[in-house]
Amino acid sequence: MITDKNIIDSINRSLLERFMNLDRRPMYRIIWSDDQYEKRFSDKWTDWYGHIMIRQEYNAVRTIKKYWYLRKPCWVLEKLVFIRGQWHLKELMKELVEAQNGTYEPAFTFLDDKKLINLPVDEEIINNIIYCLQNPTQRTPLDWKKIQEVEEKEEVDYFYNKISEDERPPLFVWNNSAFVSTNQLKFKEEYKEQTGPIVLAGE
After folding, report:
1. Residue 170 and residue 15: Cα distance in Å, rounded?
2. What is the pLDDT of residue 19?
3. Helices marked H in 28-107
4. Are residues 128 and 146 in the same domain?
5. In whole angstroms, what is the distance from residue 197 CA to residue 19 CA?
6. Would you say residue 196 lies in a domain?
7. Which residue, 78, 74, 75, is CA-closest to 16?
8. N or C: fewer beta carbons within 10 Å in the chain?
9. Is there a single domain that holds both residue 96 and residue 28?
10. Is the pLDDT of residue 38 over 50?
11. CA distances to 22, 88, 102 from 82, in Å
12. Structural domain boundaries, residue 107
């Protein structure tokens, strides 16, 4: 079910009041994906008429749909992003020619891409998303150390299990065995070769 536009307008008014930029633009906004266009430069534009190629790989600035890749139109929460550094901004503006004053980038698309179902837009959900964006989880050196220890243990366990799969049966373990487990060594220690009656010479 697609959320009513009146609800979207109400949320957008709230976002503008709470997160207004210095130039009076909202830092966050909800838009309908099919209504958004942007100007892009490319040297690889190719024009088609059905299956017939008209023109191949030429330079141009064209206005195209911003969310052409979405499989179905939906509501999108966008965030106003500014590029730091003149070099990075210059590189970005080669493609996005109107990016000088910041660009609105998708923060969350209200679409179940697998089922192609529009997700409901709720103000509480929006607030939670924005909170996570503004308060990213900071991991301490101790956190990274614990993560590394877990990964190393998982790696050791994985290779131990792979080796165990190739172990020889317990009754066939000798000194030159390629893979020896503690269980196999126990069998080796308990094994005693059985002999027949001892026959003395001359008997």
Report:
1. 70
2. 94
3. 86-95
4. no
5. 97
6. no
7. 78
8. C
9. yes
10. yes
11. 13, 10, 4
12. 5-134
